[in-house]
Fold these 2 entries.
Entry 1:
Amino acid sequence: MKPTHDVATAHELGEMDRRIEYAIGRLLRIGVIVAAIVTLAGATALLAHAGDTPVSFSTFHGVEPALLTVTGILRAAANGNSRAIVELGLLLLIATPIARVAATMVAFIWQRDATYVVVSGIVLGMLLYGLLFGT
Amino acid sequence: MSLTLFAALIGAGSFFAGLLGALTGLGGGIVVVPMLTLIFHVDLRYAVGASLVSVIATSSGSAAAYVRQGFVNLRVGVFLEVATVIGAVVGAMLAGMISTHALSLLFGLVLLYTAYRSLRGHGGDDVHDAPPHPLAVRLRLNSSLPTPAGPQPYTVQHVPQGFLMMLLAGVLSALLGIGSGVLKVLAMDHLMKLPFKVSTTTSNFMIGVTAAASAGVYLHRGYIDPALAFPVMLGVLAGALLGARLLARANVRWLRIIFTAVVVVMAIEMLSKGARGGV
């Protein structure tokens, strides 16, 4: 016994979702490309002026306080600090899936799907809180 | 070791991790942390931070290709992301309280389990049309699989159990700096009875979001060091992109056996490091 009406609805829903997914896939790829370019640019600058510096990560000291917040990274990167430019690239990468959730939420608003506007809103809220404030 | 040499070696290692991870479908993230801690003696916290960033890169970078095939179930993904993101935030909070040798032991166990799952294979692309879980109806999780014969409808089972398993996947992702793809696929494929292709592509779709939740928190704690994270991220990403291109021509069966052997060796090393008291 198959409820044909429900299946048709699910299929139409699927088609609409598929178009959204296609746009989201492109958004993600652009995000990764931009983030990789910024990271590579910062890394080139970092290696050019500090490539001979000895490094070790065997003891945890934590990243310098200036690079621990979104505003701090932006400020230091604007000043041309190469470690900050690398960190900005990594920050853009972390922001890419967050932008995807935001885009999904917009798509659900456009579909007037209240349940999923709330569901994606919860995910987006938690992600933004973590990125902006930590825990 | 100078920064240039260190970055070159780590970049090369990460490249192979990404390449094998993409070719075997196990993901490179699972071997990045053991490689960094066991071979390069990197502190576990720095290793987890760098690995999470690389997990986001591969998940997002390959999503465009996956999404085009039309297997991703958007609603299942977004709904289960609530669980993985809560799990990841909880895991990030726990990370500061758990000793590194306890984390090494946990990592060893997760690696062993990954190796076991990789050898066991999967349930196939069976389309289940048993009556769906009531929540699957209310949340409109049921969908259809594109096949040459037209779209085949499938139903979704055991929604609460799947949600709980995704909480665990999120916690492990944050604690260990991995994508937890194996556990995510298991939750969707075995518990929720989604077709295998839908499970793997939807898992990949969710991995970036899960990793971004804990990476955002770790950024504030200073776990994500730019000098370490850039060779890891760029190496894994390049390896994964090449792996995706080679996939059609590669002998996946042998690669899978080799990669599984590597995973088992790393599991034993992580367990013994953990037992000896810290990485």
Note: Chain B touches chain A through 72 residues (CB under 8 Å).
Entry 2:
Amino acid sequence: MTKRIKMIVAKPGLDGHDRGAKLLARIFAEAGMEVVYTGLRQTPEMIVQTAIQEDADVVGLSSLSGVHNYFFPRVAELLREKGLDDVLLVGGGIIPMEDYEGLKQSGVKGIFGPGTPTTEIVGFIQDNVRSR
Amino acid sequence: MAVARLITWLEDEDERAYQCMVRLYSHTGKAYIIGITGSPGAGKSTLTDKLTRHIRRAGLTVGIIAVDPSSPFTGGAILGDRVRMSEHNLDPEVFIRSMATRGFLGGMAKATGDVARVLDASGKDVVIIETVGVGQDEVDIIGIADTTCLILVPGLGDAIQSMKAGIMEIADIFVINKADRTGADQLSAEVCYRVEQDATIKPTDWGPPVVKTVAVDDEGVDQLWQAIGLHRKHLEESGRLTDKRRQRTYRETLRMIHNELFRVVREQLQSSGQLDDLVQDIVDRKNDPYTVMRQVVEDWLSVSKE
């Protein structure tokens, strides 16, 4: 029996910058995870629907356009609504430090800004992911 | 939700999947299964996306299994097929699942057939299986699909390529995608020529049509859907669908018995430490692997007879 961490990497909203998200998707795959990359311009509903169908353990959101305070909590809310409370929600991108606390309270478990060592992100996911 | 978790259990070979599949099996056999295969970048995902649009317009529900390769080094995978299928994300009658091959060869994951059954039992009218990008020899899709569509694109070789054995033999329908590109007409002519050759060499009751598409612009996809419909009608009316599914069940039953038998034997040999001893004897040339193989099997057979 082999278990692998399944992760969704998603770009919510109209933000078109996905170099970082794509690089991270590869880093997660390199760490042995199965990573579903959704592509650009995803709504929270689309992201959560993908998480449901893929039975994802982790949802990772990337935002570089300043929309994180709307999109991240909305994804968290929808995950709860759909009963996916045990799905680990993390986010990254250009996010001011003063927004961290609010996002964490809304249900985003980990937030990783520019320059975070990728081993730290991978480690956080491995330590906090659910067991099935 | 329950469907998604069951699929995970199947992928993980989790024991919990077994009981579910036992109960679910009697509800399978209703969905029509379409295989989409072809080389990397041929447009399989885009075509699957557009084909799904046409199938939905026909009022049918769709399950999609999109397979991408696992890394042979880390076991990780980038599953990128959904990028082209965003349109159907919020359609409750479309269920999309990405799968990694997890080291399984042949163009699919080990559990792909079982996952198709789950989507079938969940009430999907059509299940589309999109294989990994294949080369010349990954043809397992024909063991699962009722209709196999081989997607070709211009620029990948001359007429000799289209004469070869392997992947070119499995198509029930040939699709020339990116048909607006240079070389598409020539490729189409070469494939038509091959189909004619096939008809001369081994006459069959189905001559694979050659359909030209430009999937990104949704051109020719309705013709593809029509061609699939014609193939289905042909299979149903000639009784070939029943034959095909019986042969599939025959192979699958054998394969499942083979896998389970091997799993049980391996587990026992490994956990008892017997395997290490046998290997050591072979390494020391005190015994040979051929004799060991026969002995192990005979021991097991005698145990089962008792």
Note: The two ends of chain A are 13 Å apart (CA to CA).
